[in-house]
Amino acid sequence: MERIHVAVRARPLSAEDTKSTPWRISGNSILIPNYSNKFEFDRVFGEACKTEEVYRSKTKEIVTAAVRGFNGTVFAYGQTNSGKTHTMRGTANEPGVIPLAVHDLFHIIQQDVDREFLLRMSYMEIYNEDINDLLAPEHRKLQIHESTERGIYVAGLREEIVASPQQVLDLMQFGESHRHIGETNMNLYSSRSHTIFRMIIESRDRTGDDDSSNSCDAVRVSVLNLVDLAGSERAAKTGAEGVRLKEGSHINKSLMTLGTVIKKLSEGAESQGGHVPYRDSKLTRILQPALGGNANTAIICNITLAQVHADETKSSLQFASRALRVTNCAHVNEILTDAALLKRQKKEIEELREKLQGSQSEHLGKGDSQSSKHIITV
Ligand SMILES: Nc1ncnc2c1ncn2[C@@H]1O[C@H](COP(=O)(O)OP(=O)(O)OP(=O)(O)O)[C@@H](O)[C@H]1O
Ligand SMILES: [Mg+2]
């Protein structure tokens, strides 16, 4: 069992906002002096920090574990204009968590000479509660299904096989051009949809190619989700009307469901057999395995320390504090191909035979007339 890792990142402020900020950061805690609540997290990053530092603090470890077969999910949460897209996607000068993770992933894989890898990527957005495929823009309104074999999955989502970081980043760029972005009073390039960038990592022991070896064809499959959420917002501040207002209400609704899911999980609802409303939004349904199950999960909570947004920042920090109490249980996802299963069974049978033969000759040697009852036919 492992806790969800929660980091907070404060975005840079204007000189004026810096003068009037009520917040103080001290180590890994953040507080308003004389205000009763003091929030403590795994990490708190101040305005001067660079994305690379945020990446190294936990996501790097999640990426490394994903190569070893553990599912991983990292998402950026926070109010509009707080720096989520800056953190996850970044700019040419300051690459975000996604490009940093992609480069690292390929680097780690190249070092691993004992296994062979197959990487696939997908990129989707949830816009007004519809799932759209950003790699195949004609695939819209995709449905979520669940099966014992695949777990929860988005039917018809394109998965591209990728062989280099550049290929992934080019595909991402293509996807970005189809993402819903709009101008609001608060953010010129406000994300109007949640995006889930996903790498699926399959690997197999190379020594399995050699028939005489003892190794088996077990295939590890893990999923790495890097999520850039749309930001919670108040219509009064964003000046949202018409389409923007409708988008805003969908965004707020799915973030509210995410908040409720995290609250329930932090109260231990799932382990006590209680109801967790994953199905109330597409976002929580898709992220269900990452939130209450088999994944290493980290949240980067983006905030602004400006006085005017103190209420929104408090509510983001409350969400993040609850997330600290959620635990997950990640395990290596190993599946066996039929051939591999047969190979493994054959090996076990041979070992059993050898053991039996050994024990038979031992008993016969001692003249034990009861030995026949130990013989098992396989
Ligand atoms: N740490 C940072 N350093 C430099 N610029 C930043 C930083 N964080 C945010 N910004 C800038 O602030 C603006 C808003 O950031 P961004 O678009 O990432 O916010 P967001 O949280 O994704 O908002 P929304 O929810 O509306 O999509 C951008 O111009 C971005 O470049
Ligand atoms: Mg954004």
TrEMBL record:
It holds the Pfam family Kinesin. CDD domains: KISc_CENP_E. One of its GO terms (biological process) is regulation of chromosome organization. Residues 3-326 form the Kinesin motor domain. Residues 357-378 have a biased composition (Polar residues). One of its GO terms (molecular function) is ATP binding. The keyword ATP-binding applies. The keyword Membrane does not apply. Residues 354-378 are annotated as: Disordered. Keywords: ATP-binding, Coiled coil, Microtubule, Motor protein, Nucleotide-binding. GO terms for cellular component: condensed chromosome, centromeric region; microtubule. PROSITE patterns: KINESIN_MOTOR_1, KINESIN_MOTOR_2. ATP binds at G78, Q79, T80, N81, S82, G83, K84, T85. InterPro entries: Kinesin-like_fam, Kinesin_motor_CS, Kinesin_motor_dom, Kinesin_motor_dom_sf, P-loop_NTPase. Belongs to the TRAFAC class myosin-kinesin ATPase superfamily. Kinesin family. KIN-7 subfamily. This is Kinesin-like protein.
